């Protein structure tokens, strides 16, 4: 007899993991690559045979997994099982056509990443103690 290790319905486990992976991949996509050291690297990076990052491949794969009908875009009904994606749907749908394309997902991920980095920097700045602006008091002279 086989014992189930998870009590979540089987049909729900895979999409939830896909959603988590898609969000992680989107965050990875939003990272900006370092500038090339010399112009030869720029030319090599723009060639059609340029390698795609593992994060990009993962994001593409998970986008296709969520795109149930295979039309190359996500509809509101395709993301309704994922509250986090459904909540961000209107913000990600930049052209207002009622669908989110892969390009819109990438743009949203970049925006999300920039906002998260800004919040982290602000929190870090608030957490670090600032240097005192007043000079220390002068020592007292003894009579």
UniProtKB/TrEMBL annotation:
Protein name per Swiss-Prot or TrEMBL: EF-hand domain-containing protein
Keywords: Signal
Organism field: Acidovorax delafieldii
UniProt KW Transport keyword: no
Signal peptide, first to last residue: 1-30
Region ranges (Disordered): 34-55, 114-143
Biased composition annotated in UniProt, kind: Low complexity: 42-51, 121-133
InterPro entries named among the record's database cross-references: EF-hand-dom_pair, EF_Hand_1_Ca_BS, EF_hand_dom
Record-annotated membrane-spanning stretches: none
Domain of life the protein comes from: Bacteria
Biased composition (Pro residues): 134-143
One example GO MF annotation: calcium ion binding
Gene3D superfamilies attached to this UniProt entry: EF-hand
PROSITE patterns assigned: EF_HAND_1, EF_HAND_2, PROKAR_LIPOPROTEIN
A Pfam entry, by short name: EF-hand_1
Domain EF-hand: 80-115
